[in-house]
Amino acid sequence: MAALKRRAPLHVAGTIRAPGDKSISHRALIFAALADGETRVRDILASADVHATASALRAMGVSIPELSTDFVVRGHGIAALTSPARAFDCANSGTTTRLLCGLLAGLPGRSARFEGDASLSRRPMRRVASPLASMGAHIDFEGAPGHDGLPMRVHGAQLRGTNYVSAHASAQVKGALLLAGLASGVEVVVEEPYRSRDHSERMLLARGVALEVSERSVRLPAAQQVTAADVVVPSDPSSATFFAALAALADSGELRLENVCLNPTRTGAFDVLQRMGVSLDVSEQRLVGGELIGTIVVRPEALNGTTIEGAEIPRCIDELPMLACLASQAAGETRIADAAELRVKESDRIRAVVDNLRTLGVDAEELPDGMRIIGSRTPLRGHVITHGDHRLAMAFGVLGAIPGNQITIDDPACVDVSYPRFWQDLAAAVGQGDAGVDVRQTTASGAAVGTPLTIAIDGPAASGKSSTAQWVAQKLGVRHVDSGAFYRAITYLALSTCGDPESWVADDVLANAPRISWRLTERSVLPLIDDIDQDTALRDAPVTRQVSRVAQMLAVREWVNQMVRSAGAAVDVVVDGRDIGTTVFPDAQLKVFLVADSWERARRRLVQRLRRRPTDAEIAEETEELVARDAKDATQSAPARDAITIDTTTVTQEEQVERIVALARATRERMVRPT
């Protein structure tokens, strides 16, 4: 079959220097922490995942400054590491969790609890806990019975040596066992069916550790010490692959990818690209800190399908989503097999990639350990659900850069995990703006990849807006932002710092604002107090009684509005609360105002609170309180002029949710419709 031609002209040009390699960045910090002395670190990837590792090491007593392009880590050796005062927040970083789990397991007398967001908490940790347990490690899973993910507590112990034969090639498991052996001073041998990434081995050898490395195994002798050694982090080949694919999809031009890590365990994707017909030249190769780096120049060529399987999979596991998207534009069939590991990444990448390709109109089939894709000339159109997975956002973002495609992406900001400047670099590569353009709002091609859908749900107290918004967000697969949670957070702090509520003034209440932050979980925005989740305390009766008082303060309302705007920026969100459709998000694409008579609202609130059927007397008393609350909130409970009002008095919550979901889908359809 002849190779497919491009549907519309796309020209690429310029030089891309992808961010520092994520795998090397994590290890640069960890090995610097184990050494006794100073380590200069340059060009590190200052992403969300790497920040999680830096924060955890700081909590263990390591001196690590704010991450920048050039800084110094001051380590005091393995023996100086301490137990953290609070749980590690690993956010969405599996590397942080698994590598530090190995390190902590081998430190007698130390312990730590590992926590993460919803996505990370679903990822299996027994695959690292089991081999560590065979060495004598004590690891407790503290979630639901039978759940082998986070939260997890690791109790350090003096471990015994191991000769571990792994059924899967995993650099994270291998790295965890090596760290455990270093911490306890015991011999560790790891054998794999295929060679996994070997950054740990290369970096340890460069730091004086006497490793013995063969094609499929590594041996760490007992009683090894890590010496300090400066590191320059090369560009991440996984990140560079997105731009190699972009150049392959173009009609003219070329992209020059500089300073790329060419470690043979990481270059599988480039081999696949060449097999598909891509023109890819490598030059300026050199060894830096044990890693081979160089420059890659990629030019457009006609693409053909291929098969990716076997020993090639570990060498391109993170690039498979991009290769699958590229296959949708290639002639013939592409088949990916032996890649079941994809199901336990940041998302189930097999299902997520196939589902999204089908949504866009691609002929794709999910396989137990991979996928099958048939290339097509048909323009792609639809909305991509990333599940908070950075590699899905970037892969489909590249497809969105092709003229004629109309693709929206629910969470473009999730690329911050590995490539914070991705959208800017994408715009620059296709000649739309420069590196300073914020393309989270408008993509390089004009496709609406970065245009977020905002659904604003308002209504009087006890109208059910928060629970309805959460349900709508779940149905649509987007994040939920509860503005009321921020009012409750500032009220909670005021109760302990501002004295008699009758004397509260906005300046005193807002003095606590610096203690409040937030973080994105997989499906919500979670307010934090002193970096700790206090959701249960925020819903206590004392907070509920005073939150209206605080919400009437104009300065407090503006502060809450700013927090909600920042939390809802650049991602699809469902937001509920006061002023949402009028002041906070006046340009929201969909505004809904829920109403119900006061008796029904009182009844619903009591059912939720008491978990039983309330008496008429109880409902009457609650109704009086709601009417009084409505009077206080009158200036904030008016619907926006363009809001759709839904009277829920005689409507079940499921029915109102379905109505809003239908409205949202129609709104999203208008957003992606070609103009």
Structural class per helix/strand content?
A: alpha/beta
The geometry reads as: globular
Strand order of the main beta sheet, please?
Answer: 25-29-24-30-31
Count up the helices.
23
Compute the separation of the termini in Å.
35 Å
Biggest sheet statistics:
5 strands, parallel
Poorly predicted parts:
1-7, 433-450
Taken as a percent bin, the fraction of beta residues is 15-25%
In total, how many beta strands? 31
List the helices and strands and how they pair.
Layout: E1 11-12, E2 15-16, H1 22-34, E3 36-42, H2 48-59, E4 70-76, E5 88-89, H3 94-105, E6 111-115, H4 118-122, H5 126-134, E7 138-141, E8 152-155, E9 162-165, H6 171-184, E10 188-191, H7 199-205, E11 212-213, E12 217-220, E13 231-232, H8 237-249, E14 252-253, E15 255-261, H9 268-275, E16 279-288, E17 291-299, E18 307-308, H10 320-327, E19 333-336, H11 349-360, E20 363-367, E21 370-374, E22 381-384, H12 390-400, E23 406-409, H13 422-429, E24 454-458, H14 465-476, E25 479-482, H15 483-497, H16 506-510, E26 516-520, E27 525-529, E28 532-533, H17 535-538, H18 541-551, H19 554-568, E29 573-576, H20 580-584, E30 590-595, H21 598-610, H22 616-632, E31 644-647, H23 653-672
Parallel strand pairs: 1-14, 2-15, 3-13, 5-6, 9-10, 18-19, 22-23, 24-29, 24-30, 25-29, 30-31
Antiparallel strand pairs: 3-4, 6-8, 7-8, 10-12, 11-12, 15-17, 16-17, 19-21, 20-21, 26-27, 27-28
Helix pairs in contact: 1-2, 1-7, 2-3, 3-6, 5-6, 8-12, 10-12, 14-23, 15-18, 21-22
